[in-house]
Write a structure and sequence with these properties.
Blueprint: E1 10-12, E2 17-22, E3 25-31, H1 35-50, H2 66-80, H3 90-106, H4 116-128, H5 133-152, H6 158-164, H7 188-194, H8 200-212, H9 216-232
Antiparallel strand pairs: 1-2, 2-3
Helix pairs in contact: 2-3, 2-5, 3-4, 3-5, 4-5, 5-6, 8-9
């Protein structure tokens, strides 16, 4: 009788979770080398082997937990929110921070049990921590994005995401969340003292930005386009 190959218990480096792959599906088991992850691995393998190396039909992907969904979404975000330098952008950092209380309070629950009141509860925790209103709105939007990503990948039923859309953003003056202080422009004296220490091109970019306004990345893109035009059409 041929020997059955038992899928291995492995470390998922991006999350520090233990994983096992069964029929092309990745199952997250909990913290790597923990007793909980070993027990979950043994249960999955026992079901898998007793069913002739197939997943039991009752093990549906719609039963995914909040923790499993958050881990998969974070793994996707780690590869999606990457800047030109190859490093994760600040958006990825916001994703990690927003998902932390999502998992801490509801991680073991099925995602189908996470409704509008659950999202409001998580958002209120951010208010208690003193986070600004815009940050609370942004992070609540990330949780909605996580659930929407789950719907897109057939891990979550659409009604879960639709119900979360009932939670509206907090409005200025109608919440206990603090408001961010406006960031004032850099004064001319500071700019003049800084210009001599900058490379010529960067100094010129600062001068143009001071005259026209706009974001630094806009002028970086402008310089890049001018450089490309000069390379390919030097006579222009």
């Amino acid at each position: 009788m041929p020997k059955k190959n038992i899928p291995s218990y492995r470390l998922h480096k991006p999350t520090g979770q233990a994983i096992v792959s069964l029929q092309g599906k990745m199952f997250y088991l909990g913290k790597h080398k923990s007793k909980e992850s070993r027990v979950k691995y043994n249960e999955l393998i026992a079901d898998y082997l007793s069913n002739d190396c197939r997943l039991p039909p009752t093990r549906s992907r719609t039963e995914i937990t909040v923790e499993e969904l958050a881990l998969r979404f974070q793994e996707w975000a780690a590869g999606y929110y990457v800047g030109p330098s190859g490093k994760q952008t600040v958006t990825y950092t916001h994703c990690r921070l927003a998902l932390e209380p999502f998992v801490r309070h509801y991680g073991k629950n099925a995602i189908s049990e996470f409704g509008p009141l659950s999202l409001v509860f998580v958002r209120d925790k951010w208010v208690e921590q003193g986070l600004a209103r815009k940050t609370c709105n942004r992070w609540a939007g990330i949780i909605k994005q996580c659930v929407k990503w789950g719907v897109e990948n057939e891990l979550v039923t659409p009604d879960v995401f639709q119900s979360l859309n009932a939670v509206s953003s907090r409005k200025a003056g109608r919440t206990k969340s603090r408001e961010c202080s406006p960031i004032p422009p850099v004064d001319d004296e500071t700019i003049e003292k800084t210009l001599p220490h900058l490379p010529p091109i960067v100094a010129d970019m600062v001068r143009v930005q001071r005259l026209l306004g706009g974001r630094p990345q806009d002028y970086c893109q402008l310089v890049k386009k001018i450089f490309l035009i000069y390379c390919y059409c030097p006579t222009v």
